[in-house]
Fold this protein.
Amino acid sequence: MIAPVVIGVLIFFMIPTFWSIYLSFTDGPDYVTYELVGLQNYIDMLSPDSEVWRELLNTCYYAFVQVALSLVVSVLLANALNANIRCRGLFRVIYFLPSVTMAAAVGMVWRQLLNSQYGIVNQFLGLFGIKGPVWLTDPNFMMLGVIIVGVWSSAGYNMIILLAGLKNISKSYYEAAEIDGAGSFQKFKSVTVPLLSPVLFFVTITSVMNGFKMFDLIYTLAGSGATVDKFMQYYRTMVYGIYEKGFLYHRLGAASAESVFLLVIILILTLIQFKLQDKWVHYE
Amino acid sequence: MSEIKLTQRKERARFPVGRVILYALLIFWAVFMIMPFVWMFLTSLKTRPESMRIPIQWIPAEAQWQNYAEVLNKYDFGRYYFNTIVVTVITILYQIITCSMAAYVFARLEFPAKNFIFMACMTVLMVPTQMIIIPRFLIVMKLGWLNTFAGIIIPNLPSIYGAFFLRQNFMSIPRELDEAAMIDGCGYFGIYWKILLPLVKNGLIAFGVLSTLWCWNEMLWPLIVTSRADMYVLSIAVSSMQGQQGNNLPLQMTAGVLAMFPMLIVFLIGQKNLLDGIALSGIKA
């Protein structure tokens, strides 16, 4: 009964993982012929003028800022919804809508919404007398645009999980805090945050992981190939780099080396987060 | 009961300003969430000049429903619907059956190497699929599966996430049920199929909806294994429409609406189970 999953995992997850590591030590002109070249791919990749650093920077910028913003927003929303609110179910559904939407379509729509001339984002900012930036070609704002879209699409998902966490906190803690004379903010700080921390930790880990794997959104936000290299460098993430090297330039070895690099980064990050959790996560 | 309602009302009355801010915040965010969808749908009904007006013209003078006919017929979205439905239906049926069986085994049965297999699967869960697309592509290429349904579907069939997600559901059912059934002469498969599966129905629906969404929306893998237009799935079709018709907003948005509409329906039907299931995934983790 367990065989279909285990055999599938073996063939399509485990073997490819080791194969990926092996491929990262090879190089070849096409998909069929390749030979071992030792550490050459890694040396190229990690050389100071390699574009992987740009990709790493973009990926980290996206993952950390987007996750931080999304967490703040979703904690706020979850708290608001946990109050005694009318139409809570309706809000839940609306907030979750972006999460069920195809990232390819999301990127496509937002590319138009962020358009500096006729996009509604800048027209909205114009109402307040703010001249909106050129989101799609100003290097200072390009990744910020992606982050806004990222928050738009992920906050609802996180909010659902956090809301369930909040519901799980027994009312008696709040009552006890009230008797001790705690105000709203103090209750939030001393009761909500510690008791919610395991759920927050879970949401943080999965969000950071998803941030590092981002591809669809930038691919279509960059216009599915419409953005020229000069600007693309401000969008490209590591997964985009892997895709480009492997499937546009047919350089499997280099792409695999970057895959391994991505895996190592994700593992290190996860490890750090687990180490840090002792400092702030309280399990009952 | 009436006492509870009374205190609720008191609470509501006590912080009118706070409540106004609260609702303002909630409604602001809801508008922010919905606005792109509204714009997308309205734009899909505009003519090209209308779609580029400054300041924005929200409502088209006359709804251009023929945009939908054009995208479906001329741009072959009928074919892409068919492809995407085939891929999604096969994937979720396979995943619901195999993942629930594996989940049952992990939750209930004891056998040598069980923990080893479990830990191995846990470790694999850490590896992002984006990292292993290259060897997967080579496997599919060697098997001659490029541009086939097999190539799009099969590598994504095994789902460890599904097995773990459903395992939680199985573990929440008391073991006494199994034992009682076993005394009545039920085998392991019988217990799984007749007794437990109906009891984890909500979890199955939640996972089914989640898996449908992922499968329908997936882009990177189909992008890699399909190069022939007649094998595109909707996500690729949308993105290629964007590449070719970069300036034709109504057509792009029509394609987008067509691609996401079925998932809105699936979500609205399954939302209760899905949202509850996702909520639990955080608490039990």
